[in-house]
Amino acid sequence: MKIIVIVNETFPTDQNLTLENINEKKILNPYDEFAIQKASEIKNTETNEIIIFMISKSDNLYCLKTCLGLGGTSGNLIIFKGNNPKDLASILVKEIKKQGTFDLILTGEQDVNNPRGDIPYMINSLLDVPLISHCLDIHYSNNKLICKKETDDFLEEISINLPCIISFRKNVYEPKYPSINDIMSINEKPIFLNYYNKSENNLYLKLKIYNVKRQNKIYKNIDSDKAIKKISTYLDEWGLNGGLYEYINLFKSKK
Question: For position 198, what pLDDT does the model report?
């Protein structure tokens, strides 16, 4: 069985990020880590190939090698500095098609730092392969994949034929840690690098580190209108304003 696992690197949620370390501190997205674990469990019962696909803005191999240590048999790092979900999905589908036929695609439902889960659905549309989303667990038996989903009233089990796409939602599980043998085997597993340029219509991510410390700024010998404008300008710089100055002017005009 050929299993493809799509993974993403993300920012850690338990560390302080600064402008100096924001691009260095990346971890494997926990939702995707769970997908690798489920692929590895199927591999323990079948003779499988687990191909890892990761899109990154840099050629740092740390997270990809972690995936190989967790059960991947080969890795594909796609270096792409864009953020448009349509571009990301198109690139992934293009690389997946290079693998020929496959039996199963596993991935996380979303990034833990981004509630949007567009990618699995876009890949589903582009490949025209059935998708079951928000899965809690899967197991493979008698050439059938059994998926467990949570509904409003009960846990539902769905049987689906291969090939298909499964995306996992957050679930409670015991993380797997690579053994010494797993770590030693990483260097023997092939890794392929693919570079893509940003498209002209791509959306760009503008990241700011918010300084939550009190500014202690005191405006002296200034009238209220000028003070409000200065404060409003400062809030605008951090995306916190929401039209404060315009709202105050509108309120004053109604008096």
Answer: 66
